[in-house]
Amino acid sequence: MADSSAAPAPAPAPTRKYIFTIGNDCLASVAKDPSGKDIDALQQHMKNLPTTSTPFFFNALCDPYRDGADFVRGYPFSLRAGVLTAVSHGLWLNIPDYDAPTQLVKPLERNSRYVDAVMTIPKGILFPTCGMNLAFNRELIGPAMYFGLMGDGQPIGRYYNMWAGWCTKFLFPLASRVICDHLGLEVKTGLPYIWHSKASNPFVNLRKEYKGIYWQEELIPFFQSVVLPKDCTTQVKAKIGKVDEYFFKLADAMATWIEVWDELDPSETASAALPNGAAK
């Protein structure tokens, strides 16, 4: 994991505003754009995060803050201020980020399609999060980026980043007491691209993923319908715990994560005013 600071010596994590995560199989080669120029992924993330997102009304030119773009005719002026961007979700060239069944069906498929676009994920819409090329504003949603309880001894793998994405998109208030309810934070996806150099073993992946593939059919409707009262932690345990007892452990682990986060980073920097008021 890396971040955006160019300081000569690493500082404690709470002093860093932005965090950048990249997969260890994405470090061997630098991706190139269609002109052959090396892509500076971190630089693009730092363009995405400081500019606001526009989740309430789709702009036909995608991100209006890109060079040569703006809000098109007919875009409501009342919505142009947008909301704060919490996450910049980048994509990959070469090896696609597929699940195991798709890997087995398309073992030789490679992604060479470079889409020169950045767009806001609309409000209320989930998306598959990949931690291989991800940057986020630690001050806004740091504790929400909890990458699941997975690994040796756990019944599920390769879904840690999906869990982080689902929670980040819908459960900001669950993540930390310093984040106000319904902040209206949002996610951008698209540029930058990185070069994903190595495909993992689909048979190993299937063993790790098969419960996640099955469970997500129940988890996703929960995230789509959840209402966030003050006792939202209890709601998560009660609703998702019915899927499998693993989620009781996961809920306890998330609570522990938040307690540690609040202890190490008690600041209330996430209470900054939104540029366009509270989420509608």
TrEMBL record:
Family to which the UniProt record says this protein belongs: Belongs to the RGP family.
Pfam families, per the entry: RGP
Cytoplasm recorded as keyword: no
Coiled-coil regions listed: none
Compartments where located: Golgi apparatus
Keywords, comma-separated and alphabetical: Cell wall biogenesis/degradation, Golgi apparatus
GO annotations of cellular component type: Golgi apparatus
Biological process, per Gene Ontology: cell wall organization
UniProt keyword Zinc-finger, yes or no: no
Name this protein carries in UniProt: Uncharacterized protein
